[in-house]
Amino acid sequence: MAGLREIQSRIKSIQDTRKITNAMYMIxxxxxxxxxxxLAATEPFFxxxxxxxxxxxxxxxxxxxxxxxxxxxxxSRIGVxxxxxxxxxxxxxxxxxxxxxxxxxxxxxxxxxxxVVGELGRQYFSGRGIPIEENFQYTAQHPTFSRARWIRExxxxxxxxxxxxxxxxxxxxxxxxLLSETEDSMILPLRKSxxxxxxxxxxQEDFLLQPSPEEAIDRIVLSYVTGFIYGALVESFxxxxxxxxxxxxxxxxxxxxxxxxLNIMYNRARQAAITQEITEVCSGARAQxxxxxxxxxxxx
Length: 300
Known about the structure:
Layout: H1 4-59, E1 77-83, H2 93-107, E2 111-117, H3 119-127, E3 134-136, H4 145-161, E4 166-174, E5 180-188, H5 213-299
Helix pairs in contact: 1-5, 4-5
């Protein structure tokens, strides 16, 4: 059995670690709540933009735009935005994102340019010799609309110049507090829905785009892409914090269990030490008594 000093040292070490894991749990909880509130405040605007794009496509099906998918077009250059984290201790969060990104690279024979958010993503691809077109720093831990606009400008500059013909975003979407899903979403080009036949007796709303349908859709798509990237950044950040909360809660519970077992070991070791001391005292007293009796007999 381990000595009392060794057990006390282990208990002190685990108690210190438990304080850290519990504090990290509370910090992640606060960060996730604030990020979800920020996302909820902006979601209605971006959902309206998606609805507006669908209305434009429905009312002006013949509209041509570089942001719309062209029938029969073959796209050979793809841009992929991978959103990972800057830190670890978040369970399988980073592993799932990087695994999907690696599968995307392995399964395609097209030319791929990587745009990475998160320090762990940069380390992963750099360590494997995979070139990174752009590494967006200080974004994963601080998702803001201005950072999303910065990423959008970089991606659209490549898209408009023809360097990339398709834009994908690989990120983690948080379904609820227990479930997060890693997703690969293509945000450009937009797919046109099939035209629907509207009966003659159905009223159709008046629809006017100023100054022109092309300019209007260009403005709407810019805001839509920014909103999608911002939502992906916030969803990924919330998923990371949620994963870290789960990991830190498990670590805290494990620490409690270890402390419980170590306290039992300490009490048993202490009890054994006390019993041994009592036994030694009793044995010494008995030996002293025998020695005294022998001395008395010799004197007689």
